[in-house]
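With this grant's support, we have settled on a layout for protein records. A representative record follows, to show the layout.
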Amino acid sequence: MSADIFVITPRWTVQARHLRCTLQRALALQATQNVWSGTENINNAVAMAYGNELPDSGRWLLTRSQLRTLKIAIEWRRATRAARDRKSAPGIIEHWTEIEDQVIEAYRAASHAEGLHWI
C-alpha cells in the first residue's frame, strides 16, 4: 500500500455518521465561519460528506489532505461543542472522541513523517 494512503478503521457505525455530520455542518457554515481556508479542503469535505469515502463499516483509505480536512473539521466541531451547554450521552461522546482522536493522530503521524512537527 502506498505511503500516501492512511488507513483508519472505525469500530462503531456511529463514528462514520458523526464525521460525515461534522463535515456537513462545517460545509453549511463555511460561508459564515470560514472553517477551511482552501478550496482543496472544501472539495475533500464535500467528497467525504456526500460520497462513499467514509463508509459505516470497513476501512477508510484516506490521503494526507483528507486527514487534514477532517482534522480541521474536528477541531472546529470540538470548539463549538465546548461552547454549548448541552449534554450528550457519555457513551456517544466516547465513540465520537475515539474516532476524532484516531484521525488527529493519523494526521500527526503523517505530518511527522514529512518532517512537520507541532506541539
User: Anything to note?
Assistant: The chain has one domain: 5-113. The helical segments are 13-28, 30-33, 39-50, 64-83, 90-113.
